[in-house]
Design a protein that fits this description.
Layout: H1 3-26, H2 38-45, H3 49-62, E1 65-68, E2 71-75, H4 80-104, H5 107-122, H6 128-143, H7 149-169, H8 172-192, H9 195-217
Antiparallel strand pairs: 1-2
Helix pairs in contact: 1-3, 4-7, 4-8, 4-9, 5-6, 5-8, 6-7, 7-9, 8-9
C-alpha cells in the first residue's frame, strides 16, 4: 500500500473514531472529566495509534475533549458559562437567518422542512439520540434557503454542544413533549412566509430551550 493510500485510510478511520467517541460523549456514556487513554480506545475500536490520535485532535478542536502535553486527555467539562455562551451565539445567528430563510423559501423548501419535522416527530418520547439527530436536521431545514457553508459548520458545532447539555440534564420525555408544539409553531411561521414572525418565533424558541435546560441541569452546573 502506498503512503498516500495509508494516509487516506488512517484519515477515514480517524473520522469514524471521531464520530463514535463524539456520540459517546453526547449520549453520556463518556462522562465529563473522564480520562481517555489512547491505548484503551485502540483496544475498544480495534485500530492503531494514528486514527485515535487524529480523532482526539479533532474532538479537542471541537471542544469535546481537553488535553495538554503533560496531562491526560479528558472529556471536557460542562458549565453554566458555556451553556449560556452557546445559546447567546445561537440567538445571534439563527433568528436573523430564519428571517431570511422564511422570506426566500420555496414550496420545495417547505416540503423538505415538513419531512424533517415528521422524521423528528416519529422519535418523540422514544429514542432521545435519534430525536436529537432529527432535531438538528429540522433546524437545518428551516435555515436551508439562507444557509452558507461556513455558517452551517459553525451552527453544527453549536447544535452538537447544546445537544450535549440537553442529553446530560433533561429526560427525553420532558424534552420531547414540550418540544413538539414549539417546533410545529416554528414550522408554521416558516411556511407562512412571514419573515418577521419567523424570526420572533425562532428567538422565543431558543430562549425557551435555554431556560428549560438550565432549570433541568440545576446544581450540576453550579
Amino acid at each position: 500500500m502506498t503512503d498516500v493510500s495509508t494516509t487516506a485510510l488512517s484519515q477515514g478511520l480517524g473520522r469514524d473514531i471521531t464520530d463514535l467517541v463524539r456520540a459517546m460523549i453526547l449520549d453520556g456514556t463518556l462522562k465529563p472529566g473522564q480520562v481517555l487513554l489512547p491505548r484503551d480506545l485502540q483496544a475498544q475500536f480495534g485500530v492503531s495509534t494514528i486514527p485515535v490520535r487524529e480523532a482526539l485532535r479533532t474532538l479537542a478542536s471541537e471542544g469535546f475533549v481537553v488535553s495538554s502535553p503533560r496531562r491526560r486527555t479528558r472529556v471536557a467539562g460542562v458549565s453554566m458559562t458555556e451553556l449560556g455562551e452557546v445559546y447567546t451565539l445561537r440567538r445571534s445567528i439563527e433568528p436573523p437567518l430564519m428571517r431570511q430563510s422564511a422570506a426566500s423559501r420555496t414550496e420545495l423548501h417547505i416540503r423538505l422542512a415538513v419531512a424533517a419535522f415528521d422524521d423528528m416527530d416519529r422519535h418523540v418520547g422514544s429514542d432521545v439520540n435519534k430525536f436529537l439527530a432529527a432535531h438538528r436536521e429540522f433546524h437545518r431545514a428551516l435555515l436551508e434557503p439562507a444557509l452558507g457553508p461556513l455558517t452551517e459548520r459553525i451552527l453544527r458545532q453549536l447544535w452538537l454542544t447544546s445537544d450535549r447539555y440537553v442529553r446530560l440534564g433533561v429526560a427525553s420525555t420532558r424534552v420531547d413533549e414540550r418540544a413538539r408544539d414549539d417546533h410545529l409553531t416554528l414550522l408554521d411561521s416558516y411556511s407562512s412566509g412571514d419573515a418577521i414572525l419567523a424570526e420572533q418565533t425562532a428567538r422565543a424558541h431558543l430562549q425557551l430551550v435555554e431556560q428549560s435546560v438550565t432549570g433541568a441541569l440545576g446544581d450540576l452546573l453550579n
